[in-house]
Specification:
The protein has about 500 residues and is of the alpha+beta class. The chain has three domains: about 120 residues, Periplasmic binding protein-like II (D-Maltodextrin-Binding Protein, domain 2), CATH 3.40.190; about 100 residues, Dipeptide-binding Protein, Domain 1 (Dipeptide-binding Protein, domain 1); about 220 residues, Dipeptide-binding Protein, domain 3 (Roll), CATH 3.10.105. The chain is about 30% helix and about 25% strand. It contains 16 helices and 19 strands. Strands 1, 8, 9, 10, 11, 12, 13, 14, 15, 16 and 17 form an eleven-stranded mixed sheet that branches. Strands 4-5-7-6 form a four-stranded antiparallel sheet, with helices on one face. A two-stranded antiparallel sheet has the order 2-3. A hairpin with a 2-residue loop joins strand 6 and strand 7. Helix 9 packs antiparallel against helix 11 and helix 15 packs antiparallel against helix 16. It is globular, with a radius of gyration of 25 Å.
């Protein structure tokens, strides 16, 4: 073979190798590592972010919230309030579920009615309790009738992911939760419990086939293990990177950090209805004064957090900027316990997750130590996340204190305050004097139906002042979300913690 022939052959071989590399990258699998597994894959029967991050790849909402907080068409092409209590929703034509069946207005009606069905016991029922009925006008038009004017309905519809009526009725709820189909950009392939969920691109997705052809959501509970996998190039997106590992990720050569202000906050919920020490407001204030939140943020979270003053993030409509933290004053805490008759201390139990929130176990241990410094002995319980989430949904956590995180994907006080502080709602633990509770209920009811944004905001501010005075919680911090992202992937995090992989691409 001549020198020229050998050169041409080498060039052809190099070209083939380059083509092959391109194909391999195109067909590569994107791996997302979360600290806990999904609890189910049914979008209407859970209320949990890590689960939503998996199932939102499979299902579509009616509306979509952009990173600019503006609403955009998804399965709905238009939405309009045609009367104070009626919204007209026009639906996208030609959309298919993963089994080829067409998406229609009946699926929208079925999805909402299924969530509101008392026999289903959906944790999302309170989210849609303002809806009186859903009327199918034709295959691509629905009317949503609300009980009263409801200004945040579009925000609710952005979180409503539509399920296929025909398939759920055919296979039943239990199988649907494990083997779902939707209209979304990815199709369900396989779920190995506590290990991984495998998805593949939907070639018939109404927006066009995703750039990423295969996705795995992998469960890696230990923070250090997620970081090591990221550094080794074994995963592409890792949630909840520990602050002390940020530099290591950035220096790995394989990945880089991405941070975003979050709607997520952490607090300790007091079980006030059990009586005992927690029924005394002086004790509840003492527990707050005993915990040095600033120290936790600085020493455990690397400064990636802000002390809370209320159970709204500062990104949320209705946030009251005039409220202040309770402060850190352990000597005053001891004096309050003495005044309340608990000068010799007492015992409590506290439940907390591990691997769900950034440094959650370490935060719980720090709180345990600081409460013990004022004479309150705390037994720490660390249930597996799936068990803990189920206990919270069923109000069956066997502990006096619950460490819990809340992310408000509505970015509106309605998404938090009504569920937590309106009498009879699922997360209601606000056990105060009847007159006080009725006053808060009245303000939340008014704000929920008020179409005037300024009036709504003032009503929420008033309610938050009253709640803050009653101290139903031990306030911790609003966090910044820290992600490790492979350098081979284009993807940016969002403040609502939604991982949307249709927006991702290979570099």
């Amino acid at each position: 073979m001549s020198k020229l022939s050998r050169m041409i052959a080498c060039l052809l071989m190099a070209a083939l190798l380059l083509v092959g590399c391109g194909d391999n990258q195109q067909d590569a699998t994107l791996v997302v590592a979360q600290g806990v597994d999904a609890t189910m894959l049914d979008p209407g029967m859970h209320s949990e972010t890590t689960t939503a991050n998996v199932e939102r790849q499979i299902f579509d909402p009616l509306l979509e919230r952009g990173t600019d907080q503006e609403y955009k068409p998804a399965l709905a092409t238009s939405w309009e309030s045609i009367s104070p209590t009626t919204w007209e929703i026009e639906l996208r034509e030609g959309v298919q579920f993963h089994d080829g069946e067409e998406f229609t207005a009946e699926d929208v009606q079925y999805t909402i009615e299924r969530i509101l069905d008392p026999s289903k016991n959906s944790p999302q029922a309170s989210n849609y309790s303002a809806i009186a009925s859903v009327e199918v006008v034709d295959d691509y038009t629905v009317l949503i009738h609300t009980k009263e004017p409801y200004p945040v309905l579009p925000a609710r519809l952005a979180n409503l992911r539509i399920v296929p009526k025909h398939y759920v009725e055919q296979v039943g709820d239990e199988r649907f939760q494990l083997e779902p189909i939707g209209t979304g950009p990815y199709k369900f392939v396989q779920w190995d419990k506590d290990e991984q969920v495998v998805l593949e691109a939907n070639p018939n997705f109404w927006r066009g086939e995703p750039a990423i052809k295969r996705v795995i959501f992998k469960v890696i509970p230990e923070d250090a293990s997620r970081v090591m996998a990221l550094q080794a190039g074994q995963i592409d997106i890792a949630v909840n990177i520990p602050p002390h590992q940020v530099e290591a990720v950035n220096n790995s050569g394989k990945a880089e950090m991405a941070e975003v202000p979050s709607s997520r906050f952490l607090l300790i919920q007091f079980m006030m209805d059990k009586g005992g020490p927690l029924a005394d407001k002086r004790v509840r204030l003492a527990l707050n004064l005993a915990v040095d939140v600033e120290s936790i943020i600085d020493n455990l979270l690397g400064g990636y957090g802000t002390p809370m003053t209320q159970n709204l993030a500062n990104l949320d409509f209705g946030y009251n900027p005039n409220l202040k933290p309770y402060g850190y004053d352990p000597e005053r805490a001891k004096a309050l316990l003495q005044e309340a008759g608990y000068g010799d201390g007492f015992k409590l139990t506290m439940a907390a997750p591990t691997g769900r929130y950034m440094m959650d176990k370490e935060v719980a241990e720090a709180i345990q130590n600081q409460l013990e410094a004022i004479g309150v002995q705390v037994e720490l319980k660390l249930p597996e996340w799936g068990v803990y989430a189920d206990q919270i949904m069923r109000r069956k956590v066997d502990a006096d204190l619950w460490l819990i995180g809340w992310g408000n994907s509505l970015f509106d006080a309605e998404g938090t305050l009504y569920a937590w502080f309106h009498t009879g709602q699922r997360f209601f633990y606000y056990h105060v004097a009847a007159e006080r509770g009725q006053a808060v209920d009245a303000l939340l009811d008014k704000a929920r139906t008020n179409m005037d944004p300024q009036q709504r905001e003032q009503q929420y501010h008033q309610a938050l002042v009253m709640i803050h005075e009653d101290i139903p919680w031990l306030l911790l911090h609003q966090q910044k979300d820290l992600y490790g992202v492979s350098k081979r992937v284009n993807w940016s995090p969002r403040s609502d913690e939604a991982i949307i992989l249709y927006d991702a691409d290979w570099r």
